[in-house]
Amino acid sequence: MIDYLYFQLQNPWWDNVGAIDKDEKIREFDRLKYQYQPQTILNTRSVPGDIHLITGPRQTGKSTAVKLYIRQLLRRKTLAPQSVIYFSCDALSGEKDVIDLVVEFNKLNNSQRAVIILDEITSVSNWTAGIKWLADTGLISKSTLFLMGSSSINLKKSGEYLPGRRGRGKDIKYLPISFYELLLIHKQDVEKIPINHRRLLFKLRKMEALVKKYHRDFLFSGGFLKNINYGLTESNNDLYIKTLKSELFKAGKKEDSLREVIRKILNSLTSQSSYTNIAEEAELGSKNTAIDYLNFLSDSFFLKEVKFYDLNRQKTILKKNKKFYTIDPYIVWLFEGFVSGNLNFASLHQLVGESEMAENFVASELVKSEQEFFFFQNSRELDFYLPKRELGIEVKYKNKITSEDLKPLAVTKRKILVSKNTLAIRDDVIIVPAYLFPLIEL
């Protein structure tokens, strides 16, 4: 049984609606110069029976986002304050605790319509069984559930164990913000331009001066709001490295082994590699161990693994080499700090070159826009291919673009070449600087 005191401590607005403004997360948010309004969460309707899953890396503001959602509900008087519950599940041990929590809340709420937000539920053993039991018994039929976690493994499990039980619930990935979102919170007058817009270059050129000055800083701070507001301080860097180590500890992985895997990733970022090659260079002993560590980095939202796509057969080829990218530019620096033990990221020797950083930036923007993408190679390698868009993207981060640079795109219907500074259209290829690429609506 969950003690009422635990409910009361985490939900002070039950006794005083105005208490939401004194919440630690809300107060910190209100003090920020650059405030990000998480529309994917704020625009979610509280429909009874819907079960939403919010996943993303730690320290990106998921908890703040749901507190903002709670404040919005309270201000709109959508529900009675006592019908909105937030509960951090770190101290729960298993599915019975999850069931007890909801049963006790229903008693307090007289089983009225409610919004139930369970933070870090994915850290609870067998949590999906608890939610399944609650759904099957009808105990959450009048509630909208938001289930939150920092591992995408559990996102996959929710689909396996809760089929037909989530209503119209959404899977929301809460990642570091994109470059376009950064421009918006800096109140820049920018917009997304459709790729087929007849005045695409004209509109992009009008925004060029506004955008360019923010790009270099973004390659250091990334989309992490603490970095954007406070800079790359050693305390922030230490916080993120501790977060990585915390996730590593919970997953039962060895720090030394992960350090060698990350070293290999940094040395070959954006290049093709194989599980066997990573295992050998990181001295892991077996390919399966390499896969295990790479999956940890992917499932914890640090890394994106990109597979080979055969354009002729229109399918993914799993046995081919893979390419690896970080899901945010800052993670490159985080990885370098983790490998070196140096918290002063500004003094790090950059293991990743400018061209690789540019390609990694494009990949991270594709991840954040939830595009499905792969790479392709015949006689030449095509950096990115988006099958649903029939779109090829090639990165040539240099001052002068030649006809040879355009050739990898010949195999695709729609074509973008990402350059260093060139903005032009040659034949049917859109050439756009990396800092303008995120302003194209694909």
UniProtKB/TrEMBL annotation:
Alphabetical list of SMART domains matching this protein: AAA
Domain (AAA+ ATPase) ranges: 48-159
A family per Pfam: DUF4143
Protein name stated in the entry: AAA+ ATPase domain-containing protein
Naturally occurring in which organism (per UniProt): Candidatus Roizmanbacteria bacterium RIFCSPHIGHO2_12_FULL_41_11
